[in-house]
Amino acid sequence: MKINFQLITKMIVVTLCSTGCKKESIELVREKKMIQALMPGNVGWKGAKPIPKAPTKVPQNAKPSSSKGGILARDEIYDTVNRGILENRAFKQKNGQKIYLEKLESGKYNAVRMDKEGNFPATMKNWSSARLAEMGKNEKWPDYIVNSLDKDN
Fold first, then answer.
1. How many structural domains is the chain composed of?
2. 0.85 exceeded by the pTM?
């Protein structure tokens, strides 16, 4: 009787593990710097390894929009990066920094500078094409970018 009970217990454990531990059913979730793997049936574990913090730094003191220009808010930065890529107004400088430009309906530009580490040391909101063209000439941006900014003047 004791052997049967042990055998049945082992069969149940093996069955539960084989059905609940399928690779495609495990999903990693970030929760308070801890990794938690969730499986169907509320079974899971918490590991003691902390998740490294993302290195991306975004300016926290975003100024409101003005006609003279300002800096972008956190959500505007990612929108500008995406639109810069889609509009083919993204390029990489010789020093490794990437520049993303977004032309606004008003004719002005938003711009984001991203360094090699993924940080955003400079963001520009509502800048005129003349101001950006001047910056581009000083920083030796690609000619096709500077020329397109000059045409907008």
1. 2
2. no
Domain presence at residue 134: yes
Q: What is the dihedral of CA 131, 133, 135, 137, to 10 degrees?
A: -150
The pLDDT tens digits for 29-43 are 444 444 444 444 444
Classify residue 141: in a domain, yes or no.
yes
**8 Å CB contact between 58 and 75:** no
Output the six-digit token pair for 16. 């539960």
Question: Is residue 67 assigned to a domain?
Answer: no
pLDDT confidence band for 20 (50 / 70 / 90): low
CA distance 102 to 111: 6
**123, part of any domain:** yes
The sign of the torsion formed by the CA atoms of 21, 24, 30, 33 equals positive
